[in-house]
Amino acid sequence: MTTVAAYAAPAAKAPLERTTIERRAVGEFDVLIDIKFAGICHSDIHQAREGWGEAIFPMVPGHEIAGVVSEVGPGVTGFAVGDRVGVGCMVDSCRECDNCKDGLEQYCAKRPTWTYNAVGKDGEPTYGGYSEKIVVDENYVVRIPDGLSLDVAAPLLCAGITTYSPLRHWNTGPGKKVAVVGFGGLGHMGVKIAHALGAEVTVLSQSLRKQDDGLRLGADHYHATSDPTTFEKLAGTFDLILNTVSAPLDFPAFLSLLRTNGAMVNVGLPEEPVQIPLSGLFGNRRNLTSSNIGGIRETQEMLDFCAEHGIGAEIELIGADQINEAYERVVASDVRYRFVIDAATI
After folding, report:
1. pLDDT tens digits, residue range 91-115?
2. Helix (H) or strand (E) holding 186
3. At 266, phi and psi to the nearest 5?
4. Which residues, 6 or more positions from 12, have their beta carbon under 8 angstroms from its beta carbon?
5. Within this chain, do residues 83 and 144 fall inside the same structural domain, yes or no?
């Protein structure tokens, strides 16, 4: 066991504070990672404040982890000391179900072991990336290509793969029209990736406040959903709508923007229930669905793709003593576009 510094929420809705946690000894197939940077995902806030239900405390959030390997177990074959690596939203799964065998560990039939706010196979709670070090089985570690700086790569481990996976699954590419709802931590990555895949990209945001950024980062069009004429002008336009917003929407209005056989994919998860009138689906055989991160193989594919296309997150680098302030700013949509903690300040 190794004692490391971390920032944890001691109870639901309590401010995060500096503490220490125990990391397990490096096992045969484990990798010890010196964490360099950890992104702040809105999911961290939902869980630390029990917005998604009862949680495990104390909680060390963080599932956008970038660092350097400092030790490997004797059975590790994929990584060596000094490698630049990342850890995303999960650190284990059953490895036996059809989904795990197909590289879809995020849909493990027995539920993945999440990077934090979960219980591992050893019966101990998992602690995330707001810490100095982490020990992870090599099968759930990915390599960060040299073309990506670790600070801008960290958010790719959640925001990047959460948008890349549905864009790939629904065949985003040249000739396709894609709308991204919301232009925040997830949305700005969705725009960058959809643009790099060759699609015609439109941002649908509440206002035009971030329009210049949206166009600079790859959007071809930018519309305000607060303007009712937006829905009239864009009716029947899109092959795919990627909804990154973690709040209820007027689903019939957004579904009306889909072409025949178009799909609206939700990657944001509201804390409150939403109502979806089925009448919005019947016209033009529209589809309403969801997507949840990506498997390990696809996460590596995403990182390689981002390195090839020069894609990293737009970040604000902060010290660990600014985490609580950053949480409030995320809730207020006052970040462009992902806070990243410099782990050296933990």
Report:
1. 999 999 999 999 999 999 999 999 9
2. helix 185-196
3. -100, 125
4. 48, 49, 50, 55, 57
5. yes
